[in-house]
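Continuing the series of single-chain predictions for the mutant panel. This is the parent chain; the variants come on the following pages.
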Amino acid sequence: MHLTKLLESEGKVLFDGGTGTLLEEMGAPAGGAACVEAPDAVEKVGRMYADAGSKCIVTNTFCMNRIYMDKHCAELDVKEVNTRGVEIVRKAAGDRAAVLGDIGPTGEMLSPLGTGTEESFYAAFLEQAATLAAAGIDGFIIETMIDLNEALTAVRACRENFDLPVIATMTYATETKGGRTQMGDRAADCAAALEAAGCAAVGMNCGDLTPEQMAVVVAEYKAACSIPILAQPNAGMPRLDGDNTVFDMSPVDFAAGTIKCATAGAKLLGGCCGTTPDHIKALGDALRSLQS
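Parent structure:
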């Protein structure tokens, strides 16, 4: 499915939801390791989202860059994980949905707050992006970024080397004071900078916001940029159930809250932590009612 046509279409576009929780329920690893160790489970998740109406499905390759993997899962191979990630979702999506290559943060901080350099981050993002592109994605999604400079480095690695659309989403700690990431980046600044860097769409995912609070940040983006906006809230705020983190907002409540993101200006809508195909189906139903 041609991603550019989806982004340029007049109607709202439904994305997918969370993956890790569903994989854990199937007894599979929650991270990129599942692409190698439990490919059938990853394919099942992708197919469930396609069945729920998702027109964009993201590969299970979050944070599968060399910097993150060398520290957290050095036993895995960067090329194998990312290649399999694309192949699995492509098989699950068929011609029903576009496949987005997922690029997450490195898990490190850029200097002077950390020891990371833009050169090393760029190289890690480029290596992952090259593998995703070679495997046949329809576009990139750079997500869950709390540092605008790291996000821009990832965007440059994709934009300067590949002729594929790039979507970039930041993660916000608060909707107040103009919407702020944990690093203090303002929502309007993020939207404007990412648009200027050549993104085809920008937005927000995850974070410490309810769907309704995310709608406030969407409005900040709408005033600051002219490209499509993506909103992917969690299924409410997390709570601890023993040692487990639980997101228990119902599909109906999630859809009602996320519709407020749509009315605030988001064209692209989906879910993040705790959301399931049921949440995405409920959101799709609500979007159709909104547009009818």
